[in-house]
Design goal:
Blueprint: E1 11-15, H1 20-30, E2 34-39, H2 65-70, E3 74-78, H3 84-95, E4 99-102, H4 108-111, H5 116-122, E5 127-132, H6 147-154, H7 156-159, H8 174-197, E6 201-206, H9 207-212, H10 216-225, E7 248-252, E8 259-260, E9 263-264, E10 268-272, H11 276-285, H12 300-305, H13 307-318, H14 323-332, E11 336-339, H15 343-349, H16 351-355, E12 359-363, E13 370-374, H17 398-405, H18 410-418
Parallel strand pairs: 1-2, 1-4, 2-3, 4-5, 5-6
Antiparallel strand pairs: 7-10, 8-9, 10-11, 12-13
Length: 422
């Protein structure tokens, strides 16, 4: 028998789009909340057309891989909020929801007549979650951001790159995800607070601030010691800068540098050694070759001083072995080592992920094909999270929401359809 879902009975009205907001509602949906995604046919979530592969090999608004990833376990209704009848329908949905979440630019819901105070008139204990670049307080509240611009403002872009070169930034919008994670945590805490007190509240999530907390050590160094951040003069790459230990790197394994079907064929394994005990275990695991007894590698200070030569010698041992062979041999000896996994490794060959059912097969709602995707990275002992269905085709649940959630009659639905509300 399936375990209960912790958020069963919670209804979330979802006005989110792109990544930051949908990441939040995706987590709530996996935990059992009924998430109703509201879109307009003329202004649907742009990730529906994202070029991230078409499920079933065919592109389309209901087959975007990116939309699929962020919008599973959700229902879809299309409502034209620009029409009075459409806005009235949205207000009816607010009145029967527990949580309203949006990541529009600041003031959008205010212009709709759905500020927090106005939502409270519809549902006194409503939990309203807004995810914006700067938050709804302060002189920059009306400025807009994307993941890379929020990253720049948070200070993370400045911290990334080589000394004397332009800021490098990141190749992936981590702050879109980070803001979504923070919004999900805040929502859960607001639900807990409401369960204890009966009070709803407004959660004002700032994407820029979500990035700033990731720069904490640098900020603390400045506030406590007055030291501005400086990129290391000698970039450490995969080596450990703090604490300074060796060996600590990614080592080439059997393979080559060719890229096949988007996957690197050169294979690598990361090895991390922090203590003298780890070093002794490592030496024994690789057969204690003569060079491991060389005085230049006797202590961590010595190994750091001769790190280039040490890395070269270790790579002579790893280069004819597959990364997982290196990993398993060293882990069996108690040494921290991890194969640098490709997508194929993670989805097809990783028995650990399979044993935890982290990769799950999901049937698509429009085509016969199913696909595999990751689930949430934690397990409950008495409840669970579950991928109950794939992402919704545009407007596919309109009839269900109007009849089962709002209790509208066929005549009322026909009248709204004639007004092009949905």
């Amino acid at each position: 028998m399936a375990k209960p879902l912790p958020l069963e009975g919670i209804r979330v009205l979802d006005f989110t789009h792109i990544v930051a907001g949908p990441q939040c509602t995706r987590i709530l949906g996996d935990l059992g909340a009924q998430v109703i995604k509201v879109e307009q046919g003329q202004a649907m979530d742009v990730t529906r057309s994202a070029a991230l592969g078409g499920i079933g090999g065919i592109p389309g608004v209901n087959r975007s891989g990116m939309f699929e990833y962020f919008n599973r376990n959700k229902l879809s209704i299309t409502i034209n909020a620009l029409l009075p009848a459409g806005l009235d329908l949205i207000k009816k949905l607010v009145a029967v929801s527990d949580v309203v979440i949006e990541n529009f630019s600041s003031r959008v819901l205010e212009r709709w007549g759905l500020s927090y105070e106005e939502q409270c008139e519809l549902k006194p204990d409503i939990i309203y979650v807004s995810v914006t670049g700067f938050g709804h307080i302060g002189r920059l509240r009306d400025y807009s951001t994307w993941g890379p611009t929020a990253q720049a403002l948070s200070g993370l872009t400045f911290m990334s790159g080589l000394p004397g070169e332009r800021p490098a930034g990141w190749g992936y919008s981590f702050l879109d995800h980070t803001a979504g994670y923070n919004a999900a945590i805040a929502t859960l805490m607001a639900i807990h607070h409401r369960n204890r007190t009966g009070e709803g509240q407004w959660l004002d999530v700032s994407q820029v601030e979500s990035g700033m907390v990731l720069t904490g050590p640098a900020v603390l160094d400045y506030t406590a010691n007055g030291r501005p951040y400086r990129r290391p003069g000698n970039p450490t790459g995969n080596r450990s800068a703090n604490p300074r230990v060796a060996p600590h790197n990614a080592y080439r394994c059997a393979g080559d540098d060719e890229i096949v079907a988007g996957e690197p064929r050169q294979r690598w394994c990361v090895i991390s050694i922090f203590t003298e005990e780890d070093w002794q275990k490592f030496c024994k695991a690789i057969g204690s070759p003569e060079w491991t007894a060389d005085p230049k590698f006797a202590t961590n200070v010595d190994r750091v001083a001769n790190e280039d030569e040490l890395d070269r010698l270790i790579e002579e041992w790893t280069i004819d072995k597959m990364p997982h062979e290196v990993m398993h041999r060293l882990q069996a000896a108690g040494v921290a080592a991890g194969a640098v996994q490709t997508n194929e490794d993670k989805v097809v060959r990783d028995p650990q992920l399979r044993s935890r059912e982290f990769i799950q097969k999901v049937p698509h709602r429009e085509v016969e094909d199913s696909f595999e995707t990751d689930s949430l990275p934690f397990k409950f002992s008495h409840t669970e999270h579950r991928i109950r269905q794939a992402s919704p085709p545009l407007g596919s649940d309109t009839q269900f929401i109007l009849t089962e959630v709002l209790g509208l009659s066929e005549g009322e639905i026909t009248e709204l359809a004639e007004q092009a509300v949905f």
